Amino acid sequence: xxxxxxxxxxxxxxxxxxxxxxxxxxxxxxxxxxxxxxxxxxxxxxxxxxxxxxxxxxxxxxxxxxxxxxxxxxxxxxxxxxxxxxxxxxxxxxxxxxxxxxxxxxxxxxxxxxxxxxxxxxxxxxxxxxxxxxxxxxxxxxxxxxxxxxxxxxxxxxxxxxxxxxxxxxxxxxxxxxxxxxxxxxxxxxxxxxxxxxxxxxxxxxxxxxxxxxxxxxxxxxxxxxxxxxxxxxxxxxxxxxxxxxxxxxxxxxxxxxxxxxxxxxxxxxxxxxxxxxxxxxxxxxxxxxxxxxxxxxxxxxxxxxxxxxxxxxxxxxxxxxxxxxxxxxxxxxxxxxxxxxxxxxxxxxxxxxxxxxxxxxxxxx
Length: 366
Fold this sequence. Notes:
Trna Endonuclease, Chain: A, domain 1; globular
């Protein structure tokens, strides 16, 4: 009997790393598929009830609102009225997803065939490619496209190119479909777009906010920045609280919903002297004007949705590291009152203090 070849230590390490990577990717894709099937089934059940529910008449237009209340009480995630409406739309567009349900699951759920099949299936990307290669967040962008041909075009490009959600959004918003239709050299245009497209990093697929909630992970655990940024946020939270000056900690990685998009504010404090919220965002890397725009969006959202009677407008504080030079920017959205601005400058730690702290912390090479 031939003896097995001895392996080196380096091969041992590389074998374990490869196994971990492959199985992590497999697990991420399995969760993606399960979430997509779950949301499709919710849409299917709603459509079935509206079509032939025994007591559907007594619910009428209130169905989704009442259903949402019951599902939230049952501690299901992502079952707000907006989401239920989205699941129903998802089912209506991708009816043939039901073909991918495992037989044992169909049996346990008592699943019956959909009330109708998808239209013009010959014009569609294979449903298994859509479900297995795209996350539900991709599908949210696709179901928002009303034109069937345009949607199919982006299905094809996203699945072939393994586009990230951000890339899909960018191409839709840049009128890529319309520009391609007008091009005299479509083949070259498509090849160029695919070559420059941002792809899905397999190990990062689990960052999808839908998946976090599907798995029951709390919002404050959904930190999607780098380790160094995560560590800095820890230190900044302690730093701000140690300063005193009226800061009351309120939330970390605060989840806010703007339209159909989910965002997370790094740190949220309430300042009892200034009587306003203070939102802090940390960016490790080069400063860009998008950072200020993002923070100002958060400040505006807080002003509209979180201000109570007697509150002053919220404040945004951006901390950014640019080529080892700490940059601090304050966003004074809506603060026209000179007296309040003066008080704000007096009560908050100065830019110099924050800048010095940030520089010293970065030197620790977290």
